[in-house]
Write a structure and sequence with these properties.
Radius of gyration: 20 Å
CATH class: Mainly Alpha
Strand content: under 5%
CATH topology: Tetracycline Repressor, domain 2
């Protein structure tokens, strides 16, 4: 007598995922689907299937589909800017900063899904636009502050 299907048995034997792993899978699936189909063209059923989770699992991690959209966009921007902050804080000259910025602009294609989601969906969702603006302004302020502190130390303290 078989209690579990072979599929269910395989899933049970797999390494259990952490809550953070599940959340990340949902966000990655959402980014791809929102970029391809748009927010309105993506159902929660589509999101769950693409992430490999039950539809109810989406709502254990997020209050709504709109909350997923906002998290995808703001977290994506914060990640990009955090990487930039780290790289800029290690720069030794303004010329090096210019080279970093040029390289970043040339590599925008890597983040094309994020850009598509942000720029298209922000037109239709004011709360997304406000969240992106608040997060980006905060992160840009952090980037500028860290860079200027580093330069100040180098110029006046010899650090």
């Amino acid at each position: 007598m078989q209690i579990f299907s072979q599929q269910a048995w395989r899933e049970m034997r797999q390494t259990p995922q952490t809550e953070e792993d599940t959340r990340t899978k949902i966000l990655q699936a959402a980014l791809q689907l929102f970029a391809k189909r748009g927010y309105e063209g993506t159902t929660t059923k589509d999101l769950a299937k693409s992430a490999g989770v039950a539809e109810g699992t989406l709502f254990r991690h997020f209050d709504s589909k709109k909350a997923i959209l906002i998290e995808v966009a703001t977290a994506g921007w914060v990640d990009i800017l955090t990487d930039l902050l780290t790289e800029l804080s290690e720069m030794g000259s303004y010329k090096a900063v210019s080279q970093v910025m040029r390289r970043r602009m040339l590599n925008m294609r890597k983040n094309s899904d994020l850009m598509r989601v942000c720029f298209i969906e922000a037109q239709y969702h004011p709360e997304l636009r406000e969240s992106i603006q608040a997060e980006v302004i905060n992160k840009m302020t952090d980037v500028a502050e860290a860079f200027l502190k580093q330069q100040w130390k180098k110029a006046f303290i010899g650090g």
